[in-house]
Design brief:
Leucine-rich repeat, LRR (right-handed beta-alpha superhelix); F-box/LRR-repeat protein 14-like; alpha/beta; 15-stranded mixed β-sheet; 20 helices; 17 strands; LRR_dom_sf; FBXL15_LRR
Length: about 550
């Protein structure tokens, strides 16, 4: 068995997240979960921090010592190793936090045209590096060894990934080592670049490609610098946001999509009002791997566009058709796969039909027939043609978890009864501004919708009696919106705080009959809650 004293003198090891390998002069970690020896004394664990083992029964010496050792020694070694690992993990987190603070302070000092070492910056802020707090460095070690720029590039990249985009750019201007670490792809993972395509953009795209940025939002386009520059400059583009580019046309999109782009999975064309069904045909041909497509406000999209989407985009999981007024029940039939030629988008999980005034209960019937096992959320807010009968079809969608019925004027307690009686398993329901939803609807909710985590009842004609009804069965509710419900009093507040212990967010804006005492009751009984009682939301 290894001596405990020898284990204390082993070099400290650190476990870093897997990063993309680099074949240059600054090779980064490329094996996730592998432990690497720290090379700087200011990051080393102090010797006195090693866990102390409890005294154990001394083993017999001689030939039989190895064969007759107590079985509990292995358990003691395992416990010691586990304790040491936990201690190293905790101290490593502290080191990263201190180093991140050091970088931020150094950047701040650079803006003032002075750049002392990171150690002095920490001292000026009232903090000291861990090594200075616990042990003094050896005499032969130079002060440069405690400078933050002496860290391995992978640790610098890990620290820079916690900074905002602007500070990462500033860090790249400090020195060559920082520039290489700040430009590493791991430090820019998940960042979305926002561009104005008005001038020659080749250097910009080269910079984005070097940093591995694959998400782009185009803020403005010109006829000379079109969308083709983006696809040519970033060949592995994954997400493209063109929302609000009013001059985006079918011709521009057609010229940009000259070939297939299998890497693109997200496309946002919201408010591109010149886009028509012709563009959707090109998208269906060249962007086969799209998983998210947003077409909100594209008023020229019709059922023909739904036909080509159902035909070509088989991997589509999210579709936003907000305010597409020319899409009707027939378009829903295409999406649901009820047309043999189209095949349907049977992997669709999230569908927004907000303000689609030509979608009625018949369209919901098509959706329930074809997407009953895949659809997780549907937004029907402001869809006036939707009635209580449509809720019969919604209740048949077994996979549905989120239902938005805001401002659906023809939904009443009868529709809520259909949902409850149909065994719906929705966890989020919003019926705000439905003036036919009253206390009787809350009675149906309490009797059949037992999985709710979020409930929206803003501006509904409900009273304290209705709140008492849902409080009996909705103890797991986390979010409750009851703003502008003028009939609610402190009685509702007392019922809520006593019956809903898991509540995290509540909206009481415009509840004029709830007193200051009632609000204080919420703050006392549910302290970690987000409370909205006026135009601003407060975290308690």
């Amino acid at each position: 068995m290894e001596d405990a004293g020898q284990r204390q003198h082993q070099p400290p090891m650190t476990k870093l997240p897997g990063l993309t390998p680099s074949h240059g002069t600054t090779t980064l970690i490329h094996r996730s979960g592998h432990c690497y020896q720290l090379h700087r004394p200011h990051l080393a664990l102090p010797a006195q921090a090693a866990p102390q083992l409890r005294p154990h029964k001394q083993l017999r010496t001689g030939t039989s010592a190895d064969t007759e050792a107590p079985a509990s020694d292995a358990a003691v070694d395992a416990a010691a190793a586990n304790s040491a690992a936990k201690l190293q993990h905790k101290q490593r987190q502290e080191q990263v936090a201190v180093l991140t603070t050091s970088v931020l302070l150094l950047l701040h000092r650079l803006e003032s045209r002075t750049a002392p070492g990171a150690t002095h910056l920490l001292e000026g802020a009232g903090a000291q590096p861990l090594a200075l707090q616990r042990a003094k460095p050896a005499r032969h070690q130079s002060s440069a060894s405690t400078h933050v720029s002496s860290l391995y590039p992978e640790i610098l990249a890990l620290i820079f990934s916690n900074l905002d985009v602007r500070d990462r750019g500033r860090a790249a201007q400090v020195c060559v080592a920082w520039r290489e670490a700040a430009y590493h792809r791991s430090a820019w993972r998940g960042v979305e670049a926002r561009l104005h395509l008005r001038k020659h953009s080749s250097p910009v795209f080269q910079c984005l490609e070097r940093r591995g940025i694959k998400r782009v939002q185009v803020l403005s386009l010109t006829m000379r610098r079109g969308l083709g520059d983006v696809f040519r400059g970033i060949p592995k583009l994954q997400s493209l946001n063109l929302s609000g580019c009013y001059n985006m046309s079918d011709a521009g999109l057609n010229s940009a999509l000259g070939q297939s782009f299998p890497s693109l999975t997200e496309l946002n064309l919201s408010l591109c009002k010149n886009i028509t069904d012709a563009s959707l045909g090109k998208i269906a041909q060249c962007l086969k791997n799209l998983e998210s497509l947003e077409l909100g406000g594209c008023g020229n999209i019709s059922n023909a566009g739904m036909h080509v989407i159902a035909w070509g985009l088989k991997n589509l999981r999210r579709l936003d058709l907000r305010s597409c007024w020319n899409v009707s029940d027939q378009g829903m039939a295409y999406l649901a796969g009820l047309n043999s030629e189209a095949g349907g988008n049977l992997a669709l999980e999230h569908l927004s039909l907000q303000d689609c005034q030509r979608v009625s209960d018949e369209g919901l019937r098509h959706i329930a027939q074809g997407l009953a096992t895949s659809l997780k959320s549907i937004n029907l807010s402001f869809c006036v043609p939707i009635t209580d009968s449509g809720m019969k079809h919604i209740a048949k969608i077994a996979s549905l978890r989120e239902l938005d019925l805001r401002s659906c004027d023809n939904i009443s307690e009868i529709g809520i009864a259909y949902l409850a009686e149909g065994g719906s398993r929705i966890s989020a329901l919003d019926v705000s501004f439905c003036d036919k939803i009253g206390d009787q609807a809350l009675q149906h909710i309490s009797q059949g919708l037992f999985n709710l985590k979020s409930l929206g009842l803003s501006a509904c004609p409900i009273s304290d009696e209705g709140i008492c009804k849902i409080a009996k069965t909705q103890q797991d509710l986390e979010t409750l919106h009851i703003g502008q419900c003028n009939r609610l009093t402190d009685k509702s507040v007392f019922t809520i705080v006593e019956s809903m212990p898991h509540l995290k967010c509540i909206d009481l804006y415009g509840c004029t009959r709830i007193s200051k005492f009632g609000l204080e009751k919420i703050e006392v009984k549910l302290p970690p809650i987000s409370l909205n009682r006026d135009l601003r939301q407060e975290r308690r």
